[in-house]
């Protein structure tokens, strides 16, 4: 026979608490981490060298910045959009979204100037177009070139090894800290039962744990570099 307390039905109903802040933070961090870790883009087995794409991207952006003829700008835009038309729809939207956000931000910065000096609206629109095209071209380069290939291209240009080392380590630790914060927020969400009116007090704890863990990882990396006799000669990942 089961005891009465074990067969008794539990009537506890915790009050609802959305936890929207935690969910949105986890989702945003997850998107950033995925974008950095799985950064394969459209690179195929027979892809163009990263150094060539770097020079090509720089040349196109420089041309966009210097040219004043609107027909040339429209021709560059047509070429970029024609190239994007060969991509899957999902990737096209990711590229255009970045360019549209940059163009929208530029429009907000220039809004007061457009209102106060409407006679120069053509110049302002041309500036917005150039920002959109430049950011779109840069996004295409980023989407079609892996991080390690970019750093290898920088090494070919005789960029100091310390700069490449800082770039690689920064990207690596963005992913590691993003994972750590995501795990902490997930555990906080799983332990939060019912309504918590002081949920934002947990932000300090999350940042404190992240800071302590970051300090430990920094010390471990420094000791590993000393043990391996690290010098400025860094080839990249």
Please count the beta strands (DSSP E, at least 2 residues each): 0
Oligomer classification: single chain
In N-to-C order, the SSE pattern is HHHHHHHHH
Helix share of residues? Answer: over 70%
The helix-and-strand class reads mainly alpha
Main β-sheet: number of strands, strand sense, barrel status? none
Whole-number mean pLDDT: 78
Number of helices: 9
Rounded to an integer in angstroms, the radius of gyration calculated over CA atoms is 25 Å
The general outline is extended
Low-confidence stretches: none
In whole angstroms, the N-to-C terminal distance is 65 Å
Q: What proportion strand?
A: under 5%
Provide an overview of this structure.
Helix content is 73%, strand content 0%. By secondary structure, the chain is mainly α. The radius of gyration is 25 Å and the shape is extended.
Features:
single chain; 237 residues; mainly alpha; 9 helices; 0% strand
Architecture blueprint of SSEs:
Layout: H1 4-7, H2 20-37, H3 50-66, H4 70-84, H5 89-116, H6 121-144, H7 147-156, H8 161-191, H9 202-227
Question: In summary, what is this structure?
Answer:
With 237 residues, this protein is mainly alpha-helical. The chain has helices spanning 4-7, 20-37, 50-66, 70-84, 89-116, 121-144, 147-156, 161-191, 202-227.
């Amino acid at each position: 026979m089961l005891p009465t307390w074990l067969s008794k039905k539990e009537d506890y109903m915790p009050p609802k608490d959305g936890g929207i802040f935690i969910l949105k933070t986890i989702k945003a961090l997850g998107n950033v981490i995925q974008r950095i870790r799985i950064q394969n883009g459209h690179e195929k087995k027979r892809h163009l060298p990263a150094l060539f794409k770097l020079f090509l991207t720089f040349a196109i952006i420089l041309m966009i910045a210097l040219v004043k003829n609107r027909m040339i700008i429209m021709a560059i835009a047509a070429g970029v959009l024609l190239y994007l038309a060969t991509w899957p729809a999902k990737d096209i939207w990711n590229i255009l979204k970045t360019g549209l956000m940059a163009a929208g931000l530029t429009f907000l910065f220039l809004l007061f100037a457009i209102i106060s000096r409407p006679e120069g609206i053509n110049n302002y629109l041309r500036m917005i177009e150039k920002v959109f095209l430049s950011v779109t071209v840069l996004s295409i380069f980023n989407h079609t070139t892996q991080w390690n290939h970019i750093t290898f291209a920088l090494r070919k240009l005789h960029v100091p090894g310390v700069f490449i080392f800082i770039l690689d380590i920064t990207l690596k630790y963005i992913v590691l800290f993003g994972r750590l914060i995501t795990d902490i927020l997930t555990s906080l969400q799983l332990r939060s039962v019912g309504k918590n009116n002081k949920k934002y007090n947990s932000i300090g704890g999350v940042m404190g744990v992240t800071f302590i863990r970051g300090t430990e990882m920094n010390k471990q990396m420094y000791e590993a570099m000393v043990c391996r006799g690290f010098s400025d000669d860094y080839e990249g990942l």
